[in-house]
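A protein record pairs a chain with a discrete description of its three-dimensional fold. The shape at a given residue is found from the number at the same position. Here is what such a record looks like in full:
>
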Amino acid sequence: MTGVQDFPKLKSLTPPSTPTRRGFLALASAAAFAASRAEVAAEPALGDDGLYHESWFLQSFLDLREDLDGAAASGKRLAIMWELRGCPYCRETHLVNFADSDITTYIRDNFEVLQLNLIGSRKVTDLDGQELSEKDLAQKYGIRFTPTFQFFPPSSSGVGAKEPMAREVARAPGYLKPPHFLAMFRFVRERAYERGTFRDFLAANG
């Protein structure tokens, strides 16, 4: 199940604190991150699950509240990338969009990206504390296209009490060509969603 977007037209369908699990992960991966920082557009690896994996994607215990607040503590925003084995536009996102060093540098500097599988079976703890499989989480949020990017608020405070679809600040359902792809991340980082739509943002920024 794949989709492609070409906006404006839719073509298709820390003083010391108590350590956390995510903190341990961050410490464990810090050296690897530093070593790979200069290789922003490194070739992604194709995993046994049939998905391409970027070395800089978030290594997570799949607790979305923890991931969201961990991203915030680093001055970043949380994005979820939904993918599916055999999805041609997921492949395009990795091999074209993420191969652009300007795009990847901006995303790495400003976002934590969590990769989830549209039909996956890993258990994820949602923002409201509910634990369910990736597949069930996708259904809960109405994810129908791959790739789909979900973007969340700067903090988990109060988010879990909202209805699932109201927890996002933005969504990109389907493939975006590189200029619009970068613009979507800028739209979220600059909190332009508080002032208008993504199309408004594109119109105002060329």
